[in-house]
Amino acid sequence: MSRTPIHPGEILKDELKEIGITATELSRQLKVPENRVPQIIAGKRNISADTALRLGKWFGMTPAFWLNLQKSYELRKAAQEIGKEIDTISTRVKESA
């Protein structure tokens, strides 16, 4: 049985808890609508390139970290949803030169 993919909002939630800041306050500091970070934490919104840039700057990390979390989540979720169908696709055989 495969594990349920972890939404990047869960990781963000843990970070905010450790720091002691609310999601709404982080939204304010990121200069985004106040509901953006709470929606990400609730798993109702994905981390966009815009948000990744802002989170990267605020946390002193690369924006790629946040985008990679999002893309990894999406790939794992898709693999769970359509993995059996993907398994039926044959791999292309390259012809010898």
Concise summary:
This protein has helices spanning about 10-20, 25-30, 35-40, 50-60, 65-85. It has about 100 residues and is an all-alpha fold. It has one domain (about 10-75): 434 Repressor (Amino-terminal Domain).
What's the CATH class, please?
A: Mainly Alpha
Instruction: Return residue spans where pLDDT drops below 50 for at least 5 consecutive residues.
Output: none
User: Main β-sheet: number of strands, strand sense, barrel status?
Assistant: none
Would you list the SSEs in sequence order as H and E?
HHHHH
CATH topology description: 434 Repressor (Amino-terminal Domain)
**What is the gyration radius calculated from CA atoms?**
17 Å
* Structural class estimated from helices and strands: mainly alpha
Helix content class: 55-70%
What is the number of independent domains? 1
Number of strands: 0
**Morphology call:** elongated
Second rung of CATH, namely the architecture: Orthogonal Bundle
Mean pLDDT: 95
Distance between the termini: 42 Å
The helix count comes to 5
In terms of DSSP E residues, the strand content is under 5%
CATH H level: which superfamily? lambda repressor-like DNA-binding domains
Protein described:
By secondary structure, the chain is mainly α. It has a single domain (8-76), classed as Orthogonal Bundle (434 Repressor (Amino-terminal Domain)). Helix content is 64%, strand content 0%. It has 5 helices and no strands. Helix 4 packs across helix 5. The protein starts with 7 loop residues before the first helix and ends in a 10-residue tail after the last helix. The mean pLDDT is 95.
